[in-house]
Amino acid sequence: MLFMIFAILTVAGAVAALSLRNLVHSVLALTLAFAGLAAVYLQLGAQFIGLAQILVYVGAVAILIVFAVLLTRDTRATSQSIISSSRIGSWPVVLAVFGILAWAIRHSARSQWAIPPQPETSIQQIGNAMMLRFALPLEIIGLLLTVALIGAVTIAMREQEETR
Amino acid sequence: MGETADQFFVILQHWLVGHAPASFRPLLSALFSVVAILVVFAFLFAITTVLERKGLGRIQNRYGPNRVGPFGVLQPIADGIKSLTKEDIVPQAADKAVHFLAPVVLVLAAFSLYAVLPIGRNMVLANLDSGVLYFFAVSSVMELTIFMAGWSSRNKYSLLGAMRAIAQMISYEVPLILASVTVIMAAGSVSTVAIVESQAGYSGILPHWFVFTPWGFTGFILFMIAATAESNRSPFDLPEGESEIIAGYYTEYSGFKFALFFLGEYLGMFAISGLGITLFLGGWAAPLSFLTWIPSYLWFFTKLLAMTVMFIWIRGTLPRLRMDQLMNFAWRFMLPMALLNLVTAGVWRFLPHGVVRWFVCGLLVVVPYVFLSRGLMQGWKLEKRVYRFAE
């Protein structure tokens, strides 16, 4: 029951994100889809991933909207249709892709596996793994992101000086 | 006797739920906790509005509300009726759906923050393994609602206020989380209940709260500054900035939606104070060992009220920051201080107990503080102000 609610929420959010014409509405619908996905994670017992999903995506989406507002001239609805003009041609392609993917998933070896018992992973284990076994990769990723951040700031500052 | 008083609400809940059939019990007990949280914190909001207006009045040499009820204590009821009966004006150009959703989602998110706060012994709605993470995840939703409010109003001032709010909240979220990470390191857990338990016990009559360590004290101060910024309270109330941008993101809200914003803001303030109490001030524990007979929830709310009074005091005392000062303070003082505080917490953990540990960690706090504040004050010309016309 709960899963159905979350699934409907996620799918509705995703569909709305694609079909709404207003940019900010789309992004907010996307947040709904992310939240629904996070709820599914939480229901499956993956607390860390579920909460990180909300923390990262909802926070990131807020910044995304800021940029959407800053960089686009008008976030109000565009007059042109969201469905492309070559509608007749696109349907067979869509159906074919869906059919092939569905067939492939149905017949792959992965789908025949029995469902493994739910692993008992606590947030403590994740923390231990990240701080002991995967400490070096974690730090390298952190360093990489810091370098990217500083690089972005440097580039932005130089441009500002040029425009003055 | 003390035990019964302490566990009174827990026993009451068990007794009430015990009458229901077994399959309804989990749902019913959750429902009771939710209703209790809704009632108690809405009531606390009402008290705080009076306290704030009276307190600010006192600081500013005026009476504050004194017409409704004795000493004006019934003012919140009058305020409530007023905001309910006012016309709800939605600007013609506004984005109706988002304009409506923003205050509703804000209050929803603000109330869901309380799910992980232990307000007493055995009194927590959801004892999540990752309680602190949950808190920060939900509070990031609140940032989004403020932006929704500012954007959907289709008003320059609203949008400016929302932009300021986003910039401020994202900048101060970093030191806020880093300050809490020290506690998580020390307690070895992200669960709020486990963090409170790790601060239990007394040496002599003094408790083992994290605030009584060099890193804990620094962390607490950083946490409270960042919390003030996160809840958009003065001196960090630039997003509202009534003297510059009218009322920021809620310029275009009226009637009960405005009241909802007010409620959401105060609920956010209580929740983040509650988290500060949980992380640094021992949660529901008594401050002195011979005061443990007083029920735990009373201690929590005493601490919460003390924090609220401090917020009001700061609001009445400090002038509003400028935008560049705000950003400089966040990135050039708060962030390095919070990062160094992580190191201090690590050093504290691995040094043997004794005077040496206090000395080393105290030095690790004081030296960066001095140098960082010197760095922040560089370029300031502090001199006696000369008035040209008002002499």
- CATH topology of the largest domain in chain A, which one? Four Helix Bundle (Hemerythrin (Met), subunit A)
What structural class results from the helix and strand content of chain B? mainly alpha
Largest sheet of chain B: 2 strands, antiparallel
| DSSP helix fraction of chain B | 55-70%
Q: Please give the number of β-strands of chain B.
A: 2
Quick one: biggest sheet of chain A?
Answer: none
Order of helices and strands of chain A: HHHHHH
Radius of gyration of chain A, in angstroms, nearest whole number: 21 Å
Distance between the termini of chain B: 67 Å
Categorize the overall geometry of chain A. extended
Task: Describe this protein's structure.
The complex is a heterodimer of chains A (164) and B (391). Chain A has 164 residues and is mostly helical. Chain A has helices at residues 2-19, 23-43, 47-71, 87-107, 123-133, 135-163. Chain A folds into two domains: 1-75, Four Helix Bundle (Hemerythrin (Met), subunit A); 123-164. Chain A contains six helices and no strands. The longest helix of chain A is centred in the C-terminal third of the chain and has 29 residues, at 135-163. Chain A is extended. The N and C termini of chain A lie far apart (60 Å). Chain B has one domain. Helix content of chain B is 66%, strand content 1%. Chain B has helices at residues 2-6, 8-18, 25-59, 75-85, 96-112, 131-152, 156-187, 192-198, 214-230, 242-245, 255-280, 296-317, 323-350, 355-377, and strands spanning 202-203, 206-207. A two-stranded antiparallel ribbon of chain B has the order 1-2. In chain B, strand 1 and strand 2 (206-207) form a beta hairpin. The mean pLDDT of chain B is 84. At the A-B interface, helix 2, helix 3 and helix 5 of A face helix 6 and helix 7 of B.
Write the layout of secondary structure elements.
The complex is a heterodimer of chains A (164) and B (391).
Chain A: H1 2-19, H2 23-43, H3 47-71, H4 87-107, H5 123-133, H6 135-163
Helix pairs in contact in A: 1-2, 2-3
Chain B: H1 2-6, H2 8-18, H3 25-59, H4 75-85, H5 96-112, H6 131-152, H7 156-187, H8 192-198, E1 202-203, E2 206-207, H9 214-230, H10 242-245, H11 255-280, H12 296-317, H13 323-350, H14 355-377
Antiparallel strand pairs in B: 1-2
Helix pairs in contact in B: 2-3, 3-11, 3-12, 4-11, 5-6, 5-11, 6-7, 7-9, 7-13, 9-11, 9-13, 11-12, 13-14
